[in-house]
Amino acid sequence: MTNARSSAGNAPSTPANAVSKLLSFGALPIVLIICIIIFQIGNPRFLSAPNVLNMTQQAVYLLLIAFGQMLVLLAGGFDLSVGAVVALTSIVSAKVMVAVSLAYPDAPYLTITAGFLATMLVGLACGWVNGFGVAIMKVNAFIVTLATSSIFAGVTLVTSQGIQVSGLPRDFVYGIGSGYFMGLPVSLYFAVPAVAAVFLLVRHMRFGRYIYAIGSNVRSAVVAGVNINRYLMACYMLCATMTAFAGWLLTARVSSGEPMLGGEFPLQSIAAAVIGGCSLRGGEGSPFGVLLGVIFITVVKNGMDLLRIGSNYQMIVFGVVLVGAVVLDRYRLERAAKR
């Protein structure tokens, strides 16, 4: 009996098994390569150095938000309020920087630091509200983050009266927003440490093991002695803080506080994470997969822009991409159940 099982285990892979492995592990890189080839044929400027740098800068903001979204997804939730957090951060940080620059006109770095501290406070506050609703009040994450998205958007509009905030420091706009260092966008140097910290948390620290456990099976995590509420709160606060940081960098890029900024990020961040292997049911996913998902979303968006595909059609494409990601997630779950 043992020999029979061993022989069966060493049998050549069937076409069905090959397709299964391709869909589970290799589909995204292959589709990404196909998209790059198609966009390059459609517009030879797609792989030019200026456009690659442009895509790198575009990817920075989504990368930060998607990595924050990944933390929440791993713990079995998700965050629909990231777009509203970006807009709220943009307005609050811009107003703080304008106020400080008026009080201290010859201290641009003090102004930028004040805006950054305001950004962190906004992120922590928004994350605490989301975490409190999910972890302490035990309300479904969809309801909580949908409600807080409306609340944060309302606070943004009340604070800004629907008007953009201009007059930001030149060092902030031209140094961080559109500056380059050693041929790479300055914003990338700001984002890499934050992304690396999340990677270390997830892959090499107890925090990562615990949120995987919570997302996989809450009851087992409780039996193992994991403080569920503490780690859920931490996930939502980290997600909102990463999102606020992205909002601050994006404010530098657009050179003003924008009350309508970030509306596309809820869809794109969830799509990037799920396409990259994160499960909507929690407990599954990796930072490398999310990175690939962010690259894919950025390539598709930039390629459609170069091919002059209208924003309305782009919304349809991203909706289809998200549906495809959900179908793939369901396929992974069924395949795991068969195992």
From TrEMBL:
It comes from the Bacteria. The keyword Cell inner membrane applies. It is a multi-pass membrane protein. Keywords: Cell inner membrane, Cell membrane, Membrane, Transmembrane, Transmembrane helix, Transport. GO terms for cellular component: plasma membrane. The keyword Hydrolase does not apply. It is found in: Cell membrane. One of its GO terms (molecular function) is transmembrane transporter activity. The chain crosses the membrane at residues 21-39, 59-78, 85-104, 110-129, 141-160, 180-202, 231-250, 313-331. PANTHER family: ABC TRANSPORTER PERMEASE PROTEIN YPHD-RELATED (PTHR32196:SF21), ABC TRANSPORTER PERMEASE PROTEIN YPHD-RELATED-RELATED (PTHR32196). This is ABC transporter permease. It comes from Jiella flava. The lineage of its organism: Bacteria, Pseudomonadati, Pseudomonadota, Alphaproteobacteria, Hyphomicrobiales.
